[in-house]
Design goal:
The protein has 109 residues and is an all-alpha fold. It has helices at 2-6, 19-29, 31-48, 51-69, 80-92, 94-101. It has one domain (2-10, 18-101). The mean pLDDT is 94.
C-alpha cells in the first residue's frame, strides 16, 4: 500500500510521501507505537511548525518504540516491514531533508 501510494503508476510513478499511508498500515499491527508516533508528530509540528521534520521525527519514534515494546515482533519475528516503510518515507523526504539542512524548509502556519 505504501509503495503504491508513493509510486503510483497512474501518476507516472509519482505520489505522496507515504507517512499517513504507512501509519495506517502499521496501526493495525502496532497501535501503541502509532499512538506514540502521532504524539511525537503533533508535538514536533506544534513546536517547530515544519511538517517534514514532524513526520521524520515521528518515524524515529515509531522505530524506537517498536523495539521497546515489541523487540521480538510477534508472529513475524522481524522488524523488516517497518524498515522498508521507513526507507520509502525517508527516500521520498530527501528533498525536504536537504532543505532542512540548508534551513530553507517552509514552515506551516
Amino acid at each position: 500500500a505504501v509503495f503504491g501510494h508513493c509510486f503510483s503508476p497512474y501518476l507516472k510513478f509519482e505520489g505522496g510521501k507515504g507517512v499517513a499511508t504507512g501509519a495506517g498500515v502499521l496501526a493495525v499491527f502496532l497501535p501503541f507505537e502509532i499512538i506514540c508516533a502521532l504524539l511525537a508528530w503533533f508535538i514536533i509540528g506544534k513546536v517547530f511548525k515544519i511538517s517534514s521534520l514532524a513526520s521524520l521525527g515521528a518515524l524515529i519514534v515509531l522505530i524506537a518504540t517498536s523495539f521497546i515494546f515489541h523487540y521480538d515482533m510477534p508472529v513475524i519475528n522481524t522488524h523488516a516491514p517497518i524498515f522498508i516503510i521507513a526507507f520509502i518515507v525517508v527516500y521520498k523526504h530527501i528533498p525536504n531533508i536537504l532543505r532542512l539542512i540548508g534551513k530553507q524548509e517552509c514552515k506551516v502556519i
